[in-house]
Amino acid sequence: MAKPEFEFFPVTDVDYTVCPGDNPAITERILSRDPEGNVATRILRYEPGADSSPMGVQKHDFWEEVYILEGSFTDLTLGETFTAGMYACRPPGMPHGPWRTDEGVVTFEVRYHSK
Question: Quick check: is 10 in a domain?
């Protein structure tokens, strides 16, 4: 099902909420979501020192595109740090993470299913 239609609005009108995994240092602003809640466009924020290791390696059944707006974080499995201005496009099933950040990071993400 498609996401709802929105005209321009300030993203600051959308509150950050704690992401699944219940780590209060990892939050998201859901900008749009399909009615079933399966795919979304969001801003993801890791506070300085946040670590998603308890959530383990992530794999999704959807496409995920990520653009780093601010800061950096390290994929602990790959041992690589990714910084502002970098982009990833992950097909369904692609493993990634867990992540850790010293300075904090903010990303813009689009998640969707492809037919």
Answer: no
